[in-house]
Amino acid sequence: MPTKAELKIKTQPKLKLRQGDPVVIIAGKDKGEKGFIAKISPEENRAYVLKDNPENPDAPLPLNAVIKHKKAKFQGEQSDRLRIPSPIHVSNLMLLEPDKNQPSRVGRRKEGGKTVRYAKKTGKTIDDKPLIDKD
Predict the structure, then answer these.
(1) What is the domain count for the chain?
(2) Which of 20, 54, 65, 123 suits a disulfide with 130, CB 3.0-4.6 Å?
(3) Mean local confidence (pLDDT), 68-84
(4) How many CB atoms sit inside 10 A of residue 62's CB?
(5) CA-based nearest residue to 95, from 28, 50, 35
């Protein structure tokens, strides 16, 4: 029989989105924008979403960004407005299908004794390989 302490421990639900997944924002100020998940926090059910920057491929643009004002501290230094990525709740994100590039819900099923994710719209299995490297 479990103890009271064991009963109080909250188990975290398994998220259907993973780092590197292409997603579309379905609610909020950046509704309709497409990007990819750069970082995900399962404890808070939040993710950081970035999109490709055509001008500089090495520096992706943050989605759901907030602006932070940086004041000049020394003479000759410029003040600046920095765009900082802000986390967005995973319920406001929807996975893009790999083939059709359209949003789809995600489900789980057993294939060969292994649980895999699949797109509910087409029924195709989603690869679990991340598109970006983990740092």
Answers:
(1) 1
(2) 20
(3) 92
(4) 18
(5) 35
